[in-house]
Amino acid sequence: MKKLFVAILLSAALGGCATTAPINTRATIEQVLATQTAAWNRGDVASFMQGYWQSDSLVFIGKRGLTYGWQPTLDNYRRSYPDAAAMGHLTFSGLHITPISAQAAQVVGRWHLARPAAGDLTGHFLLVFRRINGQWVIVADHSS
Prior knowledge:
DUF4440; 4 helices; globular; signal; alpha+beta; six-stranded mixed β-sheet; NTF2-like_dom_sf; Nuclear transport factor 2 family protein
């Protein structure tokens, strides 16, 4: 009887852990995106890029095609958005964060740049996040 009771308690505890992990994952990923948004809106592209995996295996897919690597992605951002006016004010909306495993998640959403002088830009994105060395980072970004 004691073994059955312990098994039931263990099963309930493990079940509770399984339901809290996605909530923690979602909250952590939302924080990464909030930190990125704040950095962008300060005109700080380098800090914005801290949400990305600092690896040559990072992939960014945009209207100009594929870019591999953290540094080339940063360089592209700097070329496309050379100053705060070009960067505008970034907002994300309609976020759908879906944990894929304990170490991976995808995020689908909409981005909007309010740029009074240069004209607004808007589009959608699909991000793949991975938990690497205890940190959730973007390993693939398809923005259109």
